Amino acid sequence: MASDPHTRLLALFRQTAATVPAYRDFLDEHGIDAATITDAAGFAALPLMTKANYHQRFALPLRCREGRLTGCDVIAVSSGSTGTPTFWPRSTTDEAAAALRFRQVLVDGFDAAERRTLAVVCFPLGTWVGGLYTANCLQVLGARLPLTTIAPGNNKAEILRVVPELGEYFDQVVLFGYPPFLKDVIDSGLRAGVEWSRYSVKMVLAGEVISEQWRDLMGVRAGLDPERDIAALYGTADAGVLANETPASVRIRRFLADRPDAALELFGRDRLPTLLQYDPEQRYFESVDGTLVFTADTGVPLIRYHLADDGGVLTREQLEQFCLARGFDPGEMPDLPFVYVFGRALHAVSVFGANVFPETVTIGLERAGISEWVTGKFVLEAWEDADRDVLLKVTVELVPGETNTAERAAAVANSVCEELVRRNSEYANYVPAERRLPLVELRDAGDPEYFPVGVKHRYTR
Fold first, then answer.
1. Bridge partners (DSSP) listed for residue 119
2. What confidence tens digit (pLDDT) does each residue in 271-321 have?
3. Global pTM?
4. Distances in Å between the alpha carbon of 271 and those of 256, 268, 286, 364?
5. Domains in the chain, please, with CATH?
6. pLDDT averaged over every residue in the chain
7. Does residue 53 sit in helix, strand or coil?
8. Most exposed among 155, 179, 281, 403, judged by the fewest C-beta atoms under 10 Å?
9. Rounded distance, CA 44 to CA 42, Å?
10. Is 275 helix (H, G, I), strand (E, B) or coil?
């Protein structure tokens, strides 16, 4: 790892300004002459890109090099707040960079250089970014590792067929998918008599923050080591895989999970974020006002792109010294910085990897027969029951004087579910049919926990 990545960042900035028409216009609008940006301070002062001020304003080809899509090899799709897709062109060089993050998980964490490995891609297949992107990266690695990939997607019955039939021919089976879906696969397999421990199962996760209790539960049910056999990736549709958990980051997170005071001191929140490591030569992170910004050379080059994720960055030395000062030796770790991610800050909650936005839920509450007795205020949560199964929870405010009945809660649940399936392609394709109906709780107007009077309302938590 280079000690100072700014030389590369400045070169990427200059190349993007010279070759990407949309970015030239973007800089002109902000009165910036690219030739004047010559050092780290100048780079740090560049305007932040967002979906609203960049992607939604400039045509897709104009955001690519030379204003053409022909330099890109594949296009992936992510759903927006109303299901309107955002397109993300990619090239084989993008996947080569991301493959390094997969390699770090598989080789450094799971010993895949020495162990015959069956990789089972359980992310949804199709135009969505997760499934095919993962399969392509694994194929790149398969040319150099004893690694075989099969991609049943999020077809649970097919996963439960291929693992018992093929798993015995490999030293380990690695499941790639969203946490609640993989938990559902493990639980369904147990009910069907699958002995997961026979296949030396590992998991690679993405899309959601998990608890260490969830990791422990999967350890028991799948017969795996929760510290070494489960690793999370941090990825976005915008730039693919950005960072990954390492055995060291998991050890540190598990140490902090039992010490909430230390976690609060380190992260500034009473929640435990995902803690990962990243290569600044490939994906460069900054923290701006408690949210994450990154720069990456992708099919659509991104310069200081603002993610809708709360989080921050720490150097390897900072985190190591923090742990040692509290009597914990994190042991050997890659010489890479850390990024911590709380998840989407304001606009969405993630369920089975599908982003659920308030705008879509609002439509479900505006239907005749419902809108008459709800105020329009609600709170979205990814709710986890005692068995750690995840559902979308929607807490809805009643009009003053209206009553809470089971029939009304069911009507809201059905209405919201129908709109999500119709308008949000991720929800319709990522969330298993039996988990799509949200849990709805109706509360009185002005409820102090969810709808306090006089406080600016937030639709997610």
1. 149, 174
2. 789 999 999 988 999 999 999 999 999 889 999 999 878 899 999 999 999
3. 0.81
4. 11, 9, 21, 30
5. 6-89 (no CATH), 90-345 (3.40.50.12780), 354-443 (3.30.300)
6. 90
7. helix
8. 403
9. 5
10. strand
